[in-house]
What we know:
17% strand, Isopropylmalate Dehydrogenase, 10 helices, globular, alpha/beta
Amino acid sequence: MSKPVEAAGDAPILLTMGEPAGIGPEIAVAAYKALQGRNGARALRIVGDTKLFPGIPDVIATKAGVHRVPGKPDPKNAAAVIEAVETAVRLCMTGEAAAVVTAPINKAVLMQSGFGFPGHTEFLAHLTGAPRAVMMLASETLRVVPLTIHIPILDVPRAVTTEAIVAQGAIILEALKRDFAIPRPRLAVAGLNPHPGEFGDEDLRVIAPAVEALKAHGHDVRGPLPADTLFHEEARKTYDAALCMYHDQALIPIKTLSFWDGVNVTLGLPIVRTSPDHGTAFDIAGTGKADPRSMIAAIRLAAKIADARRR
Length: 311
């Protein structure tokens, strides 16, 4: 994996435009204005087609342009969407930027244009040479990581392996130390089945050995734990992050507790990347109803992580 050049001083934070037909450009502008173009000592810069951002002085222009019709995505815009992400990553890798905050993209539209990745996370791993990128959803209330993401429930048990849990767990624990400044991080590992150990054998045969392997390396890890009792207030005080076995097991609790301030953080990358914890919202694009709170939270967390990595 190639290593980025360390960002010089208070390098800027970059916001990519996301899917033009969605709310991405709108929340980028709203967040930029709400924060008056900076987060602390770090300036904010938007990466995208300049005609989407009139009145914003700090736009890094893409060569490819877009034709925006709110609510109506067009695969012809894919080149600019992809270029914005590539440009932001390159500037982070060269140390000219401190972090990238990506506005939501529409995977299906990009794939129609030949985009070969299921989402931002995998694309960012490809661009940075990271062997394994991990999606964390984080807020002041809860941090969760799904082991498996966009696959059918029927396929989840086959994808839950001891090796994957150990690899993912190690990345989470390292990120909690480096990016969240937690000296002795505590990781809770959810079971796959209800009442782990009582139904199915995956919890004892697959998950428990992974927990023991992580503990053998000196980590504070517990599990497999019942997911139905893992997210109430008292339980959340006992860990710093929860590793869950599938998408909804992780995302339902954090979106219930922190819908507007949850942030998508990609762990395991040599650069800092965050994103709002929501999609393109085609149904409200162009109506003025888009809420920038998650984008603002993503910017603030990106700056916090960038500062932590400088220490």
